[in-house]
Design goal:
single chain; 16 helices; nine-stranded mixed sheet; Protein-Tyrosine Phosphatase, Chain A; six-stranded mixed sheet; 438 residues; Udp-n-acetylmuramoylalanyl-d-glutamate--2,6- Diaminopimelate Ligase, Chain: A, domain 1; alpha/beta
Length: 438
């Protein structure tokens, strides 16, 4: 039997490869180390020889029959080897590692915090939302000698997953954005979500690290009771205290510190380019993290004002005919409700809501979709189009379609103009395509 390669040996190959890693045979890079991962419908062990033929410096497999070349090495489990390599690499650094999780706003918080910290540090942050058991190690393996700060986003859809990701990334700082009704099917309800997300607080406690906590959020504050905390919010004398100054389409805010100026009239307003009043607390979280790491106030202001949302998240899109609030990257009951509440307060004579199904709610799905319909009626929002199987099943007064394509065909013929339009739905609904006819 072939001998298993050790993590230390693998690390030597990884460094010689210039830290280049690949897991997709469609994106092979000459000189890189290829990890032959397995999935429900694929087994990359079968492509190890192809990777070597394409110029990879090494291929890592966990099936001995595929060790057909001197550059193909064997491990017990390729995924675990990738994760162990990432942890080994992480341990070469003494820079701060901040982990971010939560039901809503993980990626937005990560992007905002990266923007403000980049004013002082050479940062490494999760690309996009590569925040799972593969994405986290891939992010860690991108850390280079010049980096001074690592910001690691962590996603989860079941209990124990955040703990596993913490074991890989070993963060010494943590931030939970919020705890809401996301992935309820996998977590087993809201109590399961609390338990799963708070695994980050528990891990940071074992490292004697610090957590950044929204003090106005009673659930988070209670879960972080035993942690060393840096707090932010509006209602008390926190480490960072904010004021929501939003009067237009995009979020505006002011902030001060526990020992700073308390007369908000004397503070400069930060005018961001992010839509949705629910993003105020995300901006304040970024200001809190930056303040703790001694980023100057003017640099925090500059970073928040210059940050441009992307990837269909909290974007303000002017099409020439309409104004679109595009928040279609994902949706769950909390984020959907927040978006509707925010939109209901918008000053516009002509409003249109295009809302898609929320996924991964399991047995809670029908009730949660009904609550959204009830909220729309409570807010007296009448110009609404609902899209998806779950919304379609419900008795409601709104226009509804089973598919996004059907909705697109319907909108094409309306030639809508001079409207303010909210587009929101789960990723699988691809609601952003509706922009093309608006």
């Amino acid at each position: 039997m072939s001998k298993f390669i050790s993590v230390e040996e693998l690390y030597t190959f990884y460094l010689k490869a210039g830290q280049k890693i690949c897991t997709d045979t469609r994106k092979l890079e000459a000189g890189s180390v290829f990890f032959a991962l397995k999935g429900g419908n694929f087994n990359a062990n079968e492509f190890a020889q192809k990777a070597i033929d394409a110029g990879c410096s090494l291929a890592v497999v966990d099936e001995e029959k595929h060790v057909t070349h001197a550059k193909i090495v064997l491990v017990a489990d390729v995924l675990k080897a990738l994760q162990a390599l990432a942890t080994h690499h992480r341990r070469q650094f003494t820079i701060p590692f901040l982990a971010i999780t939560g039901s809503n706003g993980k990626t937005t918080n990560k992007e905002l915090i990266n923007a403000v910290l980049s004013k002082k540090f050479k940062t490494l942050a999760t690309i996009g939302n590569l925040n799972n058991h593969i994405g986290v190690p891939m992010t860690l393996l991108n850390i280079k000698a010049e980096h001074e700060f690592a910001i690691i986003e962590m996603g989860a859809n079941h209990q124990g997953e955040i703990h596993e990701l913490c074991e890989i990334a070993e963060p010494d700082f943590g931030l939970i954005t919020n705890i809401g009704k996301a992935h309820m099917e996998g977590f087993g309800g809201i109590e399961g979500i609390k338990k799963g997300k708070s695994e980050l607080y528990k891990y940071i406690k074992t490292k004697n690290g610090k957590v950044f906590v929204n003090g106005d959020d009673d659930v988070l504050y209670e879960l972080a009771f035993n942690n060393d905390k840096i707090t932010y919010g509006c209602k008390k004398l926190y480490d960072v205290i904010g004021k929501d100054c939003t009067t237009a389409e995009t979020v505006s805010l002011k902030f001060t510190t526990r020992y700073g100026e308390k007369d908000f009239d004397k503070l400069l307003v930060i005018n961001t380019q992010i839509v949705g009043s629910y993003n105020f607390i995300n901006c304040l979280a970024a200001a809190c993290v930056a303040n703790y790491f001694k980023v100057e106030d003017e640099h925090i202001k500059e970073a928040l004002e210059n940050y441009l949302p992307n990837m269909n998240r909290s974007q303000l899109v002017k099409t020439g005919r309409n104004t679109i609030l595009l928040d279609a990257y994902n949706a769950n009951p909390n984020s959907m409700s927040a978006a509707i509440e925010n939109f209901a307060n918008y000053r516009s004579d002509k409003k249109l809501l295009l809302l898609g199904d929320m996924f991964e709610l399991g047995e809670y799905s029908r009730d949660e979709h009904q609550k959204i319909v009830n909220l729309l009626q409570e807010k007296k929002l009448s110009n609404v189009v609902l899209v998806g199987d779950e919304f379609f099943k419900l008795e409601n007064p709104f226009k509804k379609f089973k598919t996004t394509q059907e909705c697109l065909n319907y909108l094409k013929d309306l030639h809508i103009s001079d409207n303010t339009i909210l587009i929101k739905g789960s990723r699988g609904m691809k609601m952003e395509v509706l922009q093309e006819v608006l």
